[in-house]
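Note to self: keep these together.
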Amino acid sequence: MPFVPALALATEHKALILTPVLTQAYYQSIFNELIRGINDASSGNNDVVSVPEDSSDFAVDSWVNKYSPDFIISLGLRGWDAAATSSAPLPVVLGAVLSAPEVTHARLPELTVSLTPAPNKVFSRLKGLMPDVKTIYVVAHEDDHDIIQRALFDAKQMGLTLKVKQVKNLQESAIAHTQLMQSMQPAHDVLWLLQNPDVVDNRLILPMILKTAWKAKFAVVSIRSISPYSL
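Structure:
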């Protein structure tokens, strides 16, 4: 069962959980697991409200008045955008985001729990393990725009070159990864894998990458773990 340490002390308190309306089953399952983890780690006496894609008319305070929560948990940036408009003096926990949000509202969440390590953390650990690394290659989907923009900035700040190839599906991803791996130099190039299932799946793409990396002896780092595979 998922566990949310930050909420472990709130076992007797009630939360209003704001979650985005999602259409893709994969992402729905992730957010459902997060909500289940929150309930397991707390009293379970929580209320869940879905925030539509167009949240301009979403009145979070009406839900606060209806359920009288002790604090708000906003999942995803859409949930945060909704929670930030509340006039209620309630603590807000932000989860299911890549990093802490930029200051776009008058307030910031009291606590941010990210889904994935920030790119600068990944790159810093990578440089510690592979000091000669110069270029990081990554295949990304258009949905990965935010993390790629953050990664481009972080890479430049750390003296690294990030080369990005955008794809739309697994078929394009297979071709892109094959082309990238043919041109990589094991001494100073690294392949970075994001966790988007439209780019890398465990059944076809990942085994192909690891098999090729093993033979060519270049490093692969996954956003699921800061530690790279030693190949």
